[in-house]
Amino acid sequence: MTEALKSYLPKSSYYQLISNLAIPNEKEIWIELSERHEKMEKEKQIREIDTRRKRLDAGPLPVIKETVEREIVTQSMVKPFALLKYLL
Predict the structure, then answer these.
(1) Reported pTM
(2) Euclidean distance between the first and final Cα of the chain, in Å?
(3) How confident is the model at residue 58 (pLDDT cuts 50, 70, 90)?
(4) pLDDT (tens digit, 9 = 90+) per residue, 4-52?
(5) How confident is residue 83, by pLDDT bands cut at 50, 70 and 90?
(6) In a domain, 42, yes or no
(7) Domain annotation covers residue 5
(8) Residues 6+ away with beta carbon under 8 Å from 37
(9) How many of the other CB atoms lie within 10 Å of CB of 10?
């Protein structure tokens, strides 16, 4: 779905073909992309915390949460999208 939304952006190779159609504006697309990525990362965080809690050598829950959150934030694509939301 993310790739499909990106095809609506002006820099897409498909943009010229679909520019005559009723497509959302660029700001709406970036907001939608940001929201989808945020949701996916939140779901990933919940799954990963649950998985790590079940390990025999699992540490305390607050430490697990902090570690998983840090890992997800450093790999996140949301930060650039979130910033664009306010710039457009």
Answers:
(1) 0.65
(2) 22
(3) confident
(4) 777 777 778 777 777 777 777 878 877 888 888 889 999 999 999 999 9
(5) low
(6) yes
(7) no
(8) 2, 76, 77, 78, 81
(9) 9
- Domain range for residue 69? 25-87
Distance CA(82)–CA(30), nearest Å, equals 8
How many Å separate Cα 14 from the centre of its chain? 22
Angle of helix 26-53 versus helix 78-87 axis, rounded to 10: 150
Position 79, amino acid? K
Dihedrals phi, psi of 19, to nearest 5 degrees: -65, -20
Give domain status of residue 49, yes or no.
yes
The number of distinct structural domains making up the chain is 1
Is 44 part of any domain? Answer: yes
